[in-house]
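Sample 3 of the quickstart, ligand flavin mononucleotide:
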Amino acid sequence: MRTAILTPSARKMGQGRSVPAINGFADAERLARRRLPKALFDSIASGAGQELTLRRNVEAFGDVEFRPRAAIRHSSYDLSSRILGHDVATPIMIAPTGSNRMFRQEGEPALATAAGKLGAVYVTSCLTGYPLADTMAQAQAPVFFNLYTIGGRAVTEAMIDAAQRAGCEALVLTMDMMATHGVEKPQAAGDRSAIGRNLATALSYMPQLVTKLGWTLDFMRDGMRFDCPMWVKPDGKVASFGDVIQAFGGGDTCATWDDLPWIRGRWQGPIVMKGVLRADDARRAVDAGFDAIVVSNHAARNVDGSPVPISVLPGIVDAVGQDLEVYVDGGIRRGSDVIKALAIGARAVLIGRAYLYAFAGAGEPGVRRIFEVFHAEMLATLRSLGRASVRELDRTDIALPGRWRTEEPTSKSAKERI
Ligand SMILES: Cc1cc2nc3c(=O)[nH]c(=O)nc-3n(C[C@H](O)[C@H](O)[C@H](O)COP(=O)(O)O)c2cc1C
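Result:
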C-alpha cells in the first residue's frame, strides 16, 4: 500500500469540531497539565530516580544530525510502512500505556478509533480501563496486545486467550519490568497514581481535584472507575489499579526467557519482545524466535542510568540484521526524531507521552492532531533528505556520534579487563 499522508488539514482533523490547539509536543503537554490533577500528570511525566535517563532520552536525538541532499524533488512522498506483514499508513505506533481511562474517560476504545483513522498500529496495554472487546469493536487497523504476566499464570493465560479471541494481531511481551526504582519527583504532590487506588485516597486529593474540575466531573460521570477488567482475581473480582501498583512492587509481573515456551504454546501469532537495550539480548531474541523487538527503556521509568534507546539502536540493528523487525521508543517528541530512528535502521517507532498528553488534554482528536503534526515534519524532512519514502532512509541520511557505534563488551571481554 502506498499511502500519501497529507500535510496538516484543519478540516480533515476537526471533522466539524475545532482542531485541538496542538502544534507540537509542548502544546500537548500543556493541555494535559491544564486538565489533569497534578498527581496524574506526574504519573505520566515522571521517570525513575533523578530522571537523568528521562532527560537523556529526549536530548540524545539532538546528537544525531541529518545530511540533507540538495536539489532533489520527487513527485510524491510516502510515509507508509509494513509492520509484521501489515500495510500501515505510518511507521508510528501507539505505545502501550496502562490506565488510559483514568487520564481520559473515553479510554482505550477512543485510542483504537484514532489509530484506525490514522492507519496506525495500536498496542493496547493489558492494564486497560475498558474490556478488550470494547476496544476491538472500534479497531480499523491492527491492534497488538501488550502482556504483563501480572496476577500469575491463570490470569496471564486468560488474557492471552482473550486477546486471541478478540483478534489482536500480535503479542507484545514487556520483558523489562523486573523492578521499578520508583519515582521521586511526585512526592510533593502525593504518591504516583494514588488517585486510582480507591475512593478514600482519591478524596485525599481533593485540593487537586477541585482545581481540575473538568477532569473531576468526567471522572465522576464515568463512575469513578479504578478497575482493571482484564485481570480477574481468583475470588472472581476484577482487580483495581491499587492491585496493579502493588503487583509491580512485587517484581514478578513480566515474562522471563524461561516463560517463552509456555507463552508460545498458548499464543498463535507473532510475538514481540519489548524492552531490549543490549545487542546480546537482541541476538537472544532472534534465537528465541521472536518476530520483532522494541528497543526501549520503558519511558525511563525502571532504572535511572539505563542507556538511551536511540543510542544503542545502531549496535542492535547491526547485531540482528534482517533476522527480525526492530522498533524503538523513548524520547520521541517530533517527526524528525522518527526519521532519525528509521534512518538508523528501525522499521518503526512507538510514541508514549506524545500521544498520551494529547489524549489526556484533547481526547481522540488530540491524538490524531499530534500524529498529523509529526507527519508534517516527517514529510518536510524527507524532502530535505531527497528521499521519497521512509522506506528509503538509511545511515547515509544521518551522522551519528562516533561513540554510539562502539561495540558492546561481551561478558568475557568485560571480565578480562578487570
Ligand atoms: C503513563 C505510562 C504508562 C505506561 N504503561 C506501559 C505498559 O502498560 N506497558 C508497557 O510495556 N509500557 C508502558 N509504558 C512505556 C511505553 O510503552 C513506552 O515504552 C514509552 O512511553 C516510550 O517513551 P516516551 O513516553 O518517551 O515516548 C508506559 C509509559 C507511560 C508514560
